[in-house]
Amino acid sequence: MRLINRSFNNESSNFKKMIQFIIEENSYKKDCFSWSLGRIVDWKYGLWSEKKYIPSFFSQNAQLWFDYNENLVGFAISENGDNMFYIFTNNKYPFLYEEILNWVKINWNNRQGLLYTEIVENEEYKMRVLEKNNFYSKGVCEVTRAFNCSNALSKNTELPQGFCYSNMKEKFDPMGQAKMRLNAFRNQNIINKIDILVFDYVRESPIYNPEFDFYIMNQNGEHVCGCEAFIDYNNCTAEIERVCTHSQYRKNGFAKKILIKCMQELAKHGIEKAYITGMSKIAINLYGKLGHENEVKRFYYELSK
Asked: SS3 string of 72-137?
């Protein structure tokens, strides 16, 4: 069957089709998924880079392949509009991976730096195709741990005196959350108007749920730690992201406490499994102490000079 490809169209149903593609792919890939539902939604709603303020960013950084019946069968995507790219293909079209890879090499090779991508440890076919096309492995870049949420129910989440748990449904405090996240992720203590707009917009995402946007606050009502769970109800799983602690409150065990609390609440809502991905050594070490049932490694592959 003849396939056609075209740039992402923000005014069409392309984004909904991409979401459905990820949901269906994750239903059979299980723990070895490439992207979570939260990650694909964040590509559209997480305006963490100024590049994304321009609407054309999305058409320039996603190329979609369709069959004759307009079913999405694969796509190439750049998360941040740089030389990092990802390729997704329907499991019935394994040959399409190399076709899309060649398209990326032709159309995105003029970006600053060498092209590189990320693949899951069990994707041997993709490894062979990448190596055939002069990509080489640069080693492990991420580790995803899988947790049985019900196992968290018996764990202690008691906090020191003066601290308590809350979420954005119980106490909606966007300014307090923005202060904490900017400090934790950017070492930034001044909030700009654009920062508030970006945080407001990400909460418009179709899978945002304030009940699963958790934080710990001190006796003054200030946010000291937080995390957020994005639920894939079709697969009864959740990805826990945006794990962060204010610089003044690190090394007190708050991140571990709020992650356990998050998994407890997920279990109470019938979510069986949670995933947490770490990139830094600190994050990988922390998540490895929470009692995971499985772990999956991802590898960087970079185009040779």
From this structure: EEEEEECCCCCCEEEEEECCCCCCHHHHHHHHHHHHCCCCCCCCEEEEECCCHHHHHHHHHCCEEE
